[in-house]
Amino acid sequence: MSFDHDTIVGFSKSFGLLYLVAMSIGVVIYAFWPANKKQFDRAAESVVSDEEDRPWL
Amino acid sequence: MIGRRRIIVFGGRMIGQLTALERTYAAIILIVIICVGVAMAVVGRGDLLAVHGWIIAAYGMAVMVVLLRGIDAAEPWEERFREYYDDPTKVGIILSLIWGVIGMAVGVWVASLLAWPDLTFDAAWASFGRLRPVHTSGVIFGFGGNALIATSFHVLQRTTRARLPDQLSPWFVLLGYNLFCVMAATGYFMGMTQSKEYAEPEWYADLWLVIVWVVYFAIYIRTLARRREPHIYVANWYYMAFILVVAILHIVNNLAVPVSIGHAKSYSLFSGVQDAMTQWWYGHNAVAFFLTAGFLGMMYYYLPKRAGRPIYSYRMSIISFWGITFMYMWAGSHHLHYTALPHWVQTLGMVFSLVLLVPSWASAGNALLTLNGAWHKVRDDAVLRFMMLAAIFYGIATFEGSFMAIRAVNSLSHYTDWTVGHVHVGALGWVAMITFGSFYALVPWMWKRPALYSAKLVEVHFWLALTGTVVYIFAMWNSGIIQGLMWRTFDPNGTLAYSFLDTLVAMHPYYIARAFGGLLFLAGAVVAFYNIWMTITQPAPVDEGAATDLPVEPPAPRAWAQAGE
Lengths: 57, 565
What we know:
By secondary structure, chain A is mainly α. Chain A has helices at residues 5-32, 37-48. Chain A has one domain (4-49). Chain A: This is Cytochrome c oxidase cbb3-type subunit 4.
């Protein structure tokens, strides 16, 4: 099989679809994984917390 | 007002924050830069390259003077590790505002040139083609880029609870980046350009930006490696995507071979439709990762902080982050509808542009839902209102962008002023509003002031900015759609009904309106500059006479005001 324009087009149209869908599903699973909820809530809260404006040593 | 003395004192205090070793390294770096500048001036004599060589050498010497003035300052206090390092952020804010005023003023000038073409001097540098990139680069890279660098250093430290890894590299990034901006703007005036939209600077400026950008990314990685907070807050993901992807885009799109080492001119590695596709892959992702991802990082930090409410849905922010990074990469080909680009590539760009609406609106909705339940704060606090308006315009701009990417719509909108209108919905409504909102929140924290110099002036700025933006975009929508329709109107014989001049006559009133809208926006930016400058230079307390229904400083960040005391 020669490596030409059609090869790249075929690859883009098949693998491109698969990996984008797979990554999308992966991200949604990560975001909604129940065990992750706690750290997400904590992260969102930490920005508005009234802690001192200093680095943690 | 500012005196030379004040700058020297200020500069000396900043140098005092550098360790002796860092001052030595800084001096070595500056000597190398000055030598490179002089070498360029020598090798490129007879070419415009020499002018840039001298500019680089002069820039290096100016920074060297500041360094030497403070070189014998006392070693920094060991206790500095108990504080964040904010000097580069402070200088970045001021530089951003200066570039903003310059870039917007040139914008008003080029807008006026379109309405009154005689408003030019009989000089090459003042021609439209040279002034326009000064406007675009001035506002995007000068104003926007400095704002991103300044806020990213601030957000990075606060969300990781770690100080920047050293005191020298942030200065290298900030001042090196501004050297790039100076080379860009001065080059355009001299007529130097690669003829690539938003990537006009020539090869040597591009190489310099690569070095600066790698150091910038390294600062991010090194600080994250030192982080005390295990979870990396979502704003940092947006900032990192901005830095990393802009590096990739910049390197690939600027692959070029100079005519010779002593010439400013270079030729792109790409040609024909490949060149066009590479350019618009770059161009659209510059919008995506410079003007969107970076400023979303800003929004995801300063909006919740100012509102005193955590982001409505952290999960949604993660999903929209990955949605934006995955999908924007493929959308660039919508700039090349009805060209020699293969049809399926155009369709690919169109489809991804449409799907992009989902993560874009997820971010805009997330911002507005964060404010839901705190509308009284939005009503009372013009700073927060800037941020809310930014989120609304972000929603409008992304909807409009997806819509215009549809091939059939694009056949009407492309090459018309509608595109210019769309860009300014994003640039004025989204980028500038979120930047001004963030600056207004950030400046009192950075300079340890109880509040801004004048809350009234923030109100004045808010209404100038909103009115200016609305006037501008409605003028361009009208102008662009009229122009597009006139171009495609045929008479019964099948020939075009209007000449090109007919369209110009029809567009003229809108060009005047656009220049006026831009002028209002510029006036707002000048007010912001004055207000922030007075906040910095005047330790004066708050204006008691400010309208009684306007809290001068919302209650949120109490601890911030005292930090470092």
